[in-house]
Amino acid sequence: MRCRLSVLTATAAAAALTAVTGCAEKADGKGGDGAVRVTAKDDSCEVSKKDFPAGHVELDIENKGSKVTEVYILFPDDRIVTERENIGPGTRARLTAEVKAGSYEIACKPGMKGDGIRQKVTVTGATAARRSPEMDAAVAAYRKYAQAQADETLPKAKVFTDAVKAGDIEAAKKAYAPSRIGWERTEPVAESFGDIDPKVDLREDGLEKGQRWTGWHRLEKALWQDRRIGPEEKALADTLITDLTDWQKKVGTAEITPTSMANGAKELLDEVATGKVTGEEERYSHTDLVDFQANVEGAQKSHELLKPVAVRNDPKLVAELDRQFTALNTLLDKYRADRTAYDFVSYDTVGKGQRKELSDAVNALAEPLSKLAAAVVK
């Protein structure tokens, strides 16, 4: 599950605004000419410009607070347009966004908790960012990939939910992890599917007040911790299939851009390195390594499809990404006997040192991956 603020159903084709994030650096420089400066503090979020033209907009973010922060650009209904997480005290980060005219909010989130401190901003004009034929081809190919994952997920999910509805706990446990692979592969662009993510992939500690807990992890808890399947769980199995069918239908019209592919892959790996590696995602089933592998595959698919564009602008970056993807996949292979299968060891058998090794490898990949979108739009 991607960590995010409230995600509401996307109605009518909303204006696209997708970001490219860069690496955090020491906050000892000034923002580039024309950049919108965002100064994040523990109790404020200062924005140097409240109005700017459509097209490419660059944010120069500086964290002058004492807490790690996040900066979001949001639609008025709280849907996340883009985000930059884990900006440490005294560091600076760059974020370049492709925006169309409309109203948005820039939110700073000190401590990475709560709704954030917000500033309203307005984007004016009708200028659109240019997109090359190669970029359009990458988007079309990734959409086809995402559609294939959704199409393949439904029958696997039905094996899982049929077992739940039959009250067969062992069969449901066996089908659980395979039913999630397609979803985890498409998580780099999960935000483009509207409110599907919190319906199917939310953990209990991510629930908002009054929100009903549905999806895989609700059933995971029933199977591994509660060890019982009752009428409520059987009904939730049907709900999961309904929500996944909705996801399958939305892929064709989802807002996917070259920068959302690259930026989403980077943010997903950040989540793997700082959150999923702790075992919080699959806390009952301990099938975390299946999720890790699927996440890496989805991120790598973005890289491979964007590579024809990026290699012209930054061949050294592409070579480094190739190297780091290979290194991470090799490391993950240590935890399964067959590299073509998803039979990974239970994550509760992976020690603290091994988890740090995994986190370090993901971070080593995420750092150059944060530069991919910038290389694509040069």
Account of the protein in words:
With 378 residues, the chain is of the alpha+beta class. The chain contains ten helices and eleven strands. It has helices at residues 133-165, 169-185, 196-200, 216-226, 231-250, 258-274, 288-313, 315-333, 352-369, 372-376; strands at residues 18-21, 25-26, 36-40, 45-47, 51-53, 55-63, 69-74, 80-87, 91-99, 102-108, 117-124. Strands 1, 2, 3, 4, 6 and 9 form a six-stranded mixed beta sheet that branches. It has a five-stranded mixed beta sheet with strand order 5-11-10-7-8. Strand 10 and strand 11 form a beta hairpin. Residues 3-32 have low confidence and may be disordered.
How is this fold's topology laid out?
Blueprint: E1 18-21, E2 25-26, E3 36-40, E4 45-47, E5 51-53, E6 55-63, E7 69-74, E8 80-87, E9 91-99, E10 102-108, E11 117-124, H1 133-165, H2 169-185, H3 196-200, H4 216-226, H5 231-250, H6 258-274, H7 288-313, H8 315-333, H9 352-369, H10 372-376
Parallel strand pairs: 3-6, 5-11
Antiparallel strand pairs: 1-9, 2-9, 3-4, 6-9, 7-8, 7-10, 10-11
Gist of the model:
With 378 residues, the chain is of the alpha+beta class. It is built from ten helices and eleven strands.
- Largest sheet, described in full? 6 strands, mixed
> Please, what is the oligomeric state?
single chain
Distance between the termini: 31 Å
Uncertain runs: 3-32
